[in-house]
Amino acid sequence: MTKPPTDPAAVDKAALRHAALDLRDELAAEDRAAAAAAIAARPLPVTIAAGTIVSGYMPIRSEIDPTPLMRRFVEAGAGLALPVVRGRGKPLAFRAWAPGVSLVTAAFGLLEPSPEAPEVTPDVLLVPLACFDRSGHRIGYGAGHYDTTLATLRAAKSAVAIGLAFAAQEIPRVPANEWDARLDLVLTETEVIDCR
């Protein structure tokens, strides 16, 4: 049996995560699609140089769909990658992917590139989340995959983390710890929030 968390920040995060996911789930499908289109319709938030790799994700549950924005990055000359979960506490791996290429179903029903796809190191990461604040802190699903990944990547190179969210997912303050990796930008259907 798993013990309940004793760290007050962990308890706060769990409650905030639950409330944020409930709120996100209540958004109508057409509103979610309109939000994804609105984000993709704006100018790209970062400059794309030759060889830039952008990691996206395949949406699950009621997450905002990053694929319209991912197509925009491809149009600007970026290569794409998708994350691969390697286990709790381990950084994500990233495999090259292109729209139209088949994906395989992995743990938790996540869609990932096949094991034959080459591993790459992204320069830009599109990050899903449950909720966020304007300082760039986010609450994810609790496994710490993106925190660990961003710490590892940023120790080796410059990597830009862009949270994708509905405006309704913003909260006044995320109870953050020293190991929580901050987002550089958050894109919602209403604005681009620069957290740097």
UniProtKB/TrEMBL annotation:
<keyword id="KW-0067">ATP-binding</keyword>
<dbReference type="GO" id="GO:0005524">
    <property type="term" value="F:ATP binding"/>
</dbReference>
<keyword id="KW-0479">Metal-binding</keyword>
<dbReference type="InterPro" id="IPR037171">
    <property type="entry name" value="NagB/RpiA_transferase-like"/>
</dbReference>
<protein>
    <recommendedName>
        <fullName>5-formyltetrahydrofolate cyclo-ligase</fullName>
        <ecNumber>6.3.3.2</ecNumber>
    </recommendedName>
</protein>
<feature type="binding site">
    <location>
        <position position="58"/>
    </location>
    <ligand>
        <name>substrate</name>
    </ligand>
</feature>
<dbReference type="GO" id="GO:0046872">
    <property type="term" value="F:metal ion binding"/>
</dbReference>
<comment type="similarity">
    <text>Belongs to the 5-formyltetrahydrofolate cyclo-ligase family.</text>
</comment>
<dbReference type="Pfam" id="PF01812">
    <property type="entry name" value="5-FTHF_cyc-lig"/>
</dbReference>
<feature type="binding site">
    <location>
        <begin position="13"/>
        <end position="17"/>
    </location>
    <ligand>
        <name>ATP</name>
    </ligand>
</feature>
<keyword id="KW-0547">Nucleotide-binding</keyword>
<keyword id="KW-0436">Ligase</keyword>
<dbReference type="GO" id="GO:0009396">
    <property type="term" value="P:folic acid-containing compound biosynthetic process"/>
</dbReference>
<keyword id="KW-0460">Magnesium</keyword>
<dbReference type="InterPro" id="IPR024185">
    <property type="entry name" value="FTHF_cligase-like_sf"/>
</dbReference>
<feature type="binding site">
    <location>
        <begin position="138"/>
        <end position="146"/>
    </location>
    <ligand>
        <name>ATP</name>
    </ligand>
</feature>
<feature type="binding site">
    <location>
        <position position="63"/>
    </location>
    <ligand>
        <name>substrate</name>
    </ligand>
</feature>
<dbReference type="GO" id="GO:0030272">
    <property type="term" value="F:5-formyltetrahydrofolate cyclo-ligase activity"/>
</dbReference>
<dbReference type="InterPro" id="IPR002698">
    <property type="entry name" value="FTHF_cligase"/>
</dbReference>
<dbReference type="GO" id="GO:0035999">
    <property type="term" value="P:tetrahydrofolate interconversion"/>
</dbReference>
